[in-house]
TrEMBL record:
<feature type="transmembrane region" description="Helical">
    <location>
        <begin position="53"/>
        <end position="74"/>
    </location>
</feature>
<feature type="transmembrane region" description="Helical">
    <location>
        <begin position="227"/>
        <end position="251"/>
    </location>
</feature>
<feature type="transmembrane region" description="Helical">
    <location>
        <begin position="294"/>
        <end position="313"/>
    </location>
</feature>
<keyword id="KW-0472">Membrane</keyword>
<protein>
    <submittedName>
        <fullName>Iron complex transport system permease protein</fullName>
    </submittedName>
</protein>
<keyword id="KW-1133">Transmembrane helix</keyword>
<keyword id="KW-1003">Cell membrane</keyword>
<dbReference type="InterPro" id="IPR000522">
    <property type="entry name" value="ABC_transptr_permease_BtuC"/>
</dbReference>
<dbReference type="GO" id="GO:0033214">
    <property type="term" value="P:siderophore-iron import into cell"/>
</dbReference>
<keyword id="KW-0813">Transport</keyword>
<comment type="similarity">
    <text>Belongs to the binding-protein-dependent transport system permease family. FecCD subfamily.</text>
</comment>
<feature type="transmembrane region" description="Helical">
    <location>
        <begin position="263"/>
        <end position="288"/>
    </location>
</feature>
<dbReference type="Pfam" id="PF01032">
    <property type="entry name" value="FecCD"/>
</dbReference>
<dbReference type="GO" id="GO:0005886">
    <property type="term" value="C:plasma membrane"/>
</dbReference>
<dbReference type="InterPro" id="IPR037294">
    <property type="entry name" value="ABC_BtuC-like"/>
</dbReference>
<dbReference type="GO" id="GO:0022857">
    <property type="term" value="F:transmembrane transporter activity"/>
</dbReference>
<feature type="transmembrane region" description="Helical">
    <location>
        <begin position="108"/>
        <end position="127"/>
    </location>
</feature>
Length: 316
């Protein structure tokens, strides 16, 4: 209970800071007055900072939860959606759609991003079918991510006229995100609820494949469901923000350190810490050199890369 209250307080503080800080700082009292007025003409808080903060919270949570699902089903602490081809696959198809089909409806981009994430997961599963090993799975995912990233770079270089539009979708940014994106963002919530019934199976998989199978776990079914949910969560996040790295890796680790226990606790904790990391990265990106903003994808890389190196150092 104490840890849950701490998480709630942390998210509340970060949400309030997101509403108060920026190129034009506001006091908490001024923010509360503007929110209470519910003035649709209020651009700064009601139409800019509030939806941006909520998007950061929900999509950061989606990526954190996706990372926990991937790490749980693969039993590898270095696994995450962005290291297994899911994030880069979604980014590649998103860039391809924008560059090759410029007249394509914007409403189709989320489906294209989800399809790209699914492509990465399917290729990875096919490659590892019949010879599954957590280490082999992770390493082949890294190679697949590098391949998708290479294709994305090729598309950008060969379409210089439309490169600015594509780069805006691939930087991992909350800039200009608002209430228009909220219907897609809210799709995360029912998808996330579907992850909770997998918690018991993930706990048993942690004991080893043979033990889990002996205890009645259908490994193939659980792996398929967990990875499918991770693809959906990551695809929605990439469709709205563009690729954002390291949250899916870092958030589950922090959750396991702060709330050790069963997957039923770690899954929502990973989502909460993912949302906290996204909001904190957005705050730092806005505070470094206002009114200029550092994209949230850049900030999560700056935060996550040292953590990743520290994690590798601990595992030597």
């Amino acid at each position: 209970m104490i840890r849950a209250l701490f998480l709630f307080a942390l998210l509340t503080v970060l949400l309030m800071l997101s509403l108060c800080l920026g190129a034009h700082p506001l006091s908490p009292v001024a923010v509360a007055q503007l929110l209470a007025a519910q003035n649709a003409q209020d651009f700064l808080v009601w139409n800019h900072r509030l939806p941006r903060a909520l998007i950061a919270l929900v999509l950061g949570g989606a990526i954190g939860l996706a990372g926990a699902l991937v790490q749980g089903v693969i039993r590898n602490p270095l696994a995450s959606p962005d290291l297994l081809g899911v994030t880069q696959g979604a980014g590649m198809t998103l860039a391809g759609a924008i560059l090759l089909f410029p007249d394509l409806s914007v409403n189709l981009l989320p489906l294209i991003a989800i399809a790209g994430g699914a492509l990465g997961a399917v290729v990875l599963m096919i490659y590892n079918a019949g010879n599954f090993s957590p280490l082999r799975f992770a390493l082949s995912g890294v190679a697949l991510s590098a391949g998708f990233a290479g294709v994305t770079e090729f598309l950008l270089l060969t379409h210089p006229v439309a490169i600015n539009t594509a780069l805006m979708s691939l930087t991992g940014s909350l800039w200009a995100r608002g209430w228009e994106q909220m219907p897609l963002v809210l799709l995360v919530l029912p998808v996330a609820l579907l992850a909770l019934p997998l918690a018991k199976s993930l706990d048993l998989i942690g004991l080893g494949d043979e033990t889990a199978h002996a205890l009645g776990v259908h490994l193939g079914r659980v792996q398929f469901c967990a990875l499918s949910l991770a693809v959906l969560l990551t695809g929605i996040a990439v469709a709205v923000l563009g690729p954002v790295g390291f949250i899916g890796l870092v958030a589950p680790h922090i959750a396991r350190l702060a709330t050790p226990g069963r997957a039923f606790v770690i899954l929502p904790a990973s989502a909460a810490f993912g949302g906290a990391i996204m909001m904190a990265a957005d705050l730092l990106g806005r505070a470094i050199s206002p009114p200029l903003e550092v994209p949230v994808g850049v900030m999560t890389a700056v935060i996550g890369a040292p953590y990743f190196l520290w994690l590798l150092f601990r595992m030597r």
